[in-house]
Amino acid sequence: MTRISVIVAVAGPRESGIVEACTARRDLEVVRRCADLVEAVAAARAGVGAVMLVSDHARLTREVIADVRAQGVAVVAWPRTRETGEQLARLGIAAVLAPHATDEAIAQAVADAVGGDSAGSRGPVPTATEHDAVGHRGMVVAVWGPTGAPGRTTVALNLAAEAAHAGREALLIDADTYGGAVAQACGLLDEAPGLAGLARIAQRGTVRGADVDAAAIRVSERWRVITGISRPHRWLEVPGVALDEVWQGAREAAEFVVIDAGFGLERDEELTYDTRAPQRHGATLSALNAADAVVAVGTAEPLGIQRLIHGLADLADVGVREPVVVVNRVRADVAGSRPEEAVADALVRYAGIESVWTLPWDPRAADAATLAGRALAERAPRSALRRSIAALAAALTPATLVEAARPSTLDRHALSH
User: Do 382 and 326 contact (CB within 8 A), yes or no?
Assistant: First the structure.
């Protein structure tokens, strides 16, 4: 009979009794009795256990749980109080026992954990009291684009502004960990805790709509902003596993959530580390995974089209199969006398993209909005660029996403005028 190896990281006087109850069973073997959480996580990384039994620890976070699960180790939690039990459940641990559970019941739960949900779950499933009880669940749109400044922030900012202009409660989140510029584009200071503050809340539990409301800066009556990290080296403050929870809170806080994501999609950490490592592009991957729609932005220059084509293939590799493709700065100077058709034909030929939204080259309107730190709807409401983005924003709604976000071949240039 194969015995299940158990790592025990339980604090308090009941630790000895729990260990005895586990060792008394033929199917369990306690391989580590750890003095603290750090030792327990190291043991899990070393591959010596199949189950980790923990009590409430000050340093137990959502990212630590994800780290242990990444090693294929199931997690069972025994809290010492009801309050800490609720906290552990909010971290995404499926097997959270009652504080008054007997030693034998705890040992049984450890035996049942292998092959159960506690090993396979990647994160918490929101309960009715946490998320579904809220009156609405907003739509999340992630705006992505390849390297080379294709205009991700401009598109993201104005999508949120147009949603607000149409009467929806909009929220713009800066999740670009390389060159986030949402605060500057909106004329705001970037000193607010913003996304990093929400990620810290997520590490310890559930992010609710009220938390997002408190972190957001109101730009207009129906439009708010969550600023990003102020320096690229702070990317560790916004791990993807924490942001998975942040997006849930954002859905509670707004009807239309726009995430300005970074360009990186690589998972190089998996190739260079034997154990789970922080993902440099975890914020972007988390945003794409959570989004109801992904807007992929490229530019009309030949190099921009090439980067977009390669980027669309990379998006498919990370699971984004049908992005809404947008080509920015479309003009005859770089794409010929009929630039919209040239762009669409290139994407059909080299990427198999049958539908594309085109945004015209309108530097006067874009520069005026940037200089004022305002949206196009405020600074250049009659500009061609504003009208095009407004039409795209109108299409990206839950009721019309399937039909309108994929225009027919005959209508695919409709936004260029």
Answer: no
CA dist 62 and 306 (Å) reads: 38
Token look-up 């490592």 returns: 277
What SS3 class is residue 33?
strand
As a whole number of angstroms, the distance between CA 154 and CA 283 comes to 19
Enumerate domains of the chain plus CATH numbers.
4-120 (3.40.50.2300), 131-416 (3.40.50.300)
String of b and e for 218-227 (b: at least 16 CB within 10 Å)?
ebeebbbbbb
| Distance, CA of 32 to CA of 48 (rounded, Å) | 8
Prediction pTM value: 0.79
Beta-bridge mates of residue 294: 142
The tokens describing 46, both together, are 């070393």
With beta carbons less than 8 A apart as the criterion, state whether 142 and 226 touch. no
Tokens representing residue 269 in the block: 């950490």
The one-letter code for the residue type at 393 is A
Asked whether the beta carbons of 195 and 224 are under 8 A apart, the reply is no
User: For the CA atoms of the chain, what is the radius of gyration?
Assistant: 24
Cα-based angle 258, 323, 287 (whole degrees, multiple of 5): 40
Total number of residues shown for the chain: 417
Query: 181-211: per-residue pLDDT in tens?
Result: 999 999 887 667 899 999 999 998 899 999 9
